[in-house]
Amino acid sequence: MPPTVPISKSSGRIWLEKPSVSSDGLLSTFVFPAPGPSPSSSPPAEAVASPSHRFLKSAFALGSRASFSAGDSRGSLWTFSPPSNAFRRVCAPSSSGTSTRTLGPATALCYRPPSEQTVLAGHANGSVTRTVAGERTEFRSAVHGSPIRCLDSSAGLVLSLSQDKAVVWRDDGEKLSVARSMPGDFRAGRIVSAAGRRGQGAGSGKDVCVLFADSSVACYDADCFAMTRQYVLPATEGDAGLTTFDVSGDGRLLCSAGANAMLYLWDMQSDVLLLIAEMPPSAASVVHVEYSKTPNPAGFTPLFVLGDDGRILCLDFSPAGCTVLYEIASPSEALTHFSLDKPGRYLAATTSTGALRLYDLAVAAETANVLARSTLDYDRLNPATAKNANRWEPLYRLARLDPNETRLNTRKLRTLLDSYGEYPAKYRLLSWRFLLQLPENHDAFALLANKEVHPAFGGLNDRYPLKNQRVFKKLQSVLSALAHWSPVFGEAEFVPALAYPFVSLFQVDDLAAFETVMAVLLHWGGTWLTTFPHPPIPVLNTIEQIIHAHDPKLAAHLVSTGVSSQTYAWSMLRSVFTEVLNKSEWLRLWDHLFTNAHDPSLLLCAVAAYSIYNRNAIIPASNKTEIEPFFHRQNPINMSDFLLLMYELRRKTPTSVLPRPGEGLLEESGSSSAPSKKQTEEGREAEESGNVLGSVLSSPDTPWPIPRGMYPAFHGYPKFVVDFQIAERARLAAEEGEIRRKRRLLEALSERARGLATEEEQWQAQQQILVQAEETRRRTAEEAEKKRLEEERRLDDVSRERRLSQIEAMEEAALKAMQSSSNLRSAESKRIDDDLLRIRQKSEYVLKQRMEEEALLNLENQASQRVRQLQMGRSEEEKSRELRAELKAKEDKMALDDKMLLDRLKVEDEERRLSAEVERAKREKMVQMEAAMKTQQEINEKFVTAAAEREAKLAEVERERRLRHLAEDENRRKAEEIAQIEKQAEIEKKMEVADMESLISDARAWRQQQAKERMGMVEEERRRYILESEVREKRLEELSKLSRRREYEKAMVDQQQDEISKTLEEEKTMQQALLTMEQDRVRDRLHELRLGLVEEERKQKSDFQNMLQGAEERIVAEERRRFVQLREELRGKSADHEREIMQEHERRMVALQTEQKDEMDRIKEMIRKKVQLQEASGVASKYDGGGGAGGGAAGAGGTDDIMTRAKATLARQGK
């Protein structure tokens, strides 16, 4: 359902979600919500329109963005942009110092071209305002003293029109200035293109057209305001009361309308009234007309007309006629005003409740309800005498007049028919509608036509293939409506052949075709279906009696050759004579039958008259095979003689043969029941007064004419037979649909299984690729890790060797220092003996810590120096490469600059050389020109006199040539127009042929597919039939018992019929008919029993099929469940495997990092211990090698103990 958008704030989004479009094209409805709860408390679809705050007018922008503006009853101006999904109030009532009390609501709106932001508005106080980007500027003028009715803008001109004055404004973009003010009594106005005006000269190319109160339209030149043309209706139209008009975009056609519900079409090039059309009966007047700004794909410009009934009609209103394309209406409220966008896609309309409705015309053109009566009646005027022509009342309008006002009644039509033998072709269909008193029940027909195609006629194209698909669709629509009205017409095989001539004759008027076929079936064929599915035996017996009464020899010959009335009479009745008469003959016959509709038996006399008329061709035939084709082909016939013979047979046929007025044709010709005297007198009086309704004498069960409002129910058929056939067809269709559904289901399951298998294969392939990629990545990482470890080991070895060499150097230096110290102490031993113990105790700890720290610092310093040297080496290499690249680039640039400099110097030298040559040539040319000018001046002086004389002669020749060219151009233009029209017609014809061929090929392919499917179904049924043969034989035995019982009942019936024949010998014909009917009923009962048996068999088949279907579904479900379970297991195993691999990889990486860290710590500790051991050994050697006899000997024991304990400690730590 299209959303209802409440306008409760100054701006916002139009749709909160993608909007849906209704079948009539409605996109959205905008309303001002009534005072009450907050708009957020209820959904937009439940918004109730405010009775005091309403939308009044709307206007679309002139661009292609489909944005439009609307004015409300409070003087505000709103803009809506569906492409941007936004709306906002661009101007409030109090903006720019104005108010609703002074300006009033906007009574007219338009956009200023070419801007899409400038909106002009006319208000109730006579003022004109311009709104740009939310700023309103008011232009007050004393010229308008009443509300503005119309506002239009084009090419710097603005036309504002009120009831008493029309004002033309000059618009320079900043302000409006009055250019012209014209007093008068006006109704509407437009600024139109002067392209269609004869004798158009230079200027703005615009005309100002205004509609006066006397229904005349005058056009004034926008530059000099001189009247250029005027359109006045003929005096025969009286006071038309025109109130609105519009001009097509090309400026060629003008359409006006008003209070008399008539549309007037003018040719603005020839100033001729071309066409007059009347609105449907529901519209008493026209409110607004507007041409679409853009022609549709068919090449014509649609006209949109709003009537006072609140409906908008989209018309193809052209000199060729007036056709309703579609209508736009609201079921709950009337439309009061509308406007169109330039591309012709959207329509905005205000309603009687104050809502603003937005329609999508593309959707409305495809799916909206088309008027059942799609062609408006119109009168074509002769352009040569259009201005003075006297227009007669159309014939169809007389059918709605009262009897006292009727100028052309049934008696006058009969007189016209007797004089000319037929009705004029132009008014034949209108005469038929008048004679049949068709009710034109639009609503009832719409209910039937809007339903889906009846199943009985879904395959109509197979039985009745037509080349013209448009006629076929209309025939299918009418037949489907008949079947929905009464189901028997979907089962009777003769209905399509009966309806086709009337559908093809009425063409676009589906309603008239439907009601005409209904009238024929009810009034002339009301008893044809009482013996359905058999031919109407009583009716055929009546025809046989008519022939026997007037031509016994022909009747005897037909009986002797075995030709029954079902051969010659039923074939003509079921085809309503289309097989034996051509179109013109058929139309003449039905002119007479419809004119004498009060006597339906005249149709039976026509059948008998055709046989008697051709007796000379029938009697020589000796057998049935020679006679039967005669009644299925068109034979030469004189219609005048045939019609006279028909009337003569009707006049001379005894009343005992023909059914009396008021009797059904099913009643026997000899029945004693006769119409009452009162009924006969009423019929005679109605016929004398020319009232068709009162002159019709029909059976009480068959209403005549068709009543207005709703169509009558039809029950003249055996309901149980029709119901059984409908049920059988529905059952077969259901079985076929079930088989197709199962086949589609199996195909879908197979396709789904294949898709799942393909997805599984793809998933497995992807997993395999991922596993391979992971293995490759692992191998690459392991190789990189091995290389890195090898590099680290190599670097550690190098570092260890360097550090050990440094330690050795340090040891050598220390030994040298200790040797020199030893020598010094030996020389000064006496002086330091007292301090030795103190120094040794103090320096034990300091030396130990200091030497360890120095050793580590030296190692770190050397390592950092080596790293800095490596980095500096790499940096130097990078800088050298960059310098070499920069140097190379500079050298290339310098070479290029040198080359460019040389080229520029060469170009400058060449330019200077060429400039010198040009200057020299110029000077030479100037000298030559001066000489030539002197010579030319002398020549001009010599020929000036001759030229004057020659121009005088040529002027006369030129005048004659221009006249000839004007005549040739006019002839060529007319020829081009004719050629263009022919070319367009040829193109349309080719397109129609191509469409028909495409539809036929599609239908042929569909039939082949259906035949293939049905053959498969038949083969399957045959196999099942073999399996069920034993059950069928048993049921056949039961059927034989029932048959013997029915035969006994038949014998009893025969005995009863014999007793009746003995007592009523004068009614033998009637007894034979009743006996035949009883036998038919017995056969029908037997047939019903057989069908019941078949139904039981098919029911068992259906149960068996359901059992198979359940088994198939269970198998498929089990396979699907197993497949899903297997897939989930595989996915779970794969995920677990990947997770285990990742965890194992992480554990290995952590262990490897731990091992590397421990190894580094162990190496560092070993180095530290080794350094400590070496330092301790150095200190010990220092003390061991120096000192005197006392000092050295005294300290030897303590030093050895210290070294021993240090080595033991280091050994334990090393372990």
Automatic annotation (TrEMBL):
Residue stretches spanning the membrane: none
Subcellular compartments: Cytoplasm, Cytoskeleton, Cilium basal body; Cytoplasm, Cytoskeleton, Microtubule organizing center, Centrosome, Centriolar satellite
SMART domains recorded: WD40
Coiled coil spans: 732-801, 873-924, 964-991, 1053-1162
Biased composition (Basic and acidic residues): 678-687
Keywords: Cell projection, Cilium biogenesis/degradation, Coiled coil, Cytoplasm, Cytoskeleton, Repeat, WD repeat
Domain Rab-GAP TBC: 422-597
Region (Disordered): 655-700, 1180-1200
Repressor is among the record's keywords: no
Protein's UniProt name: TBC1 domain family member 31
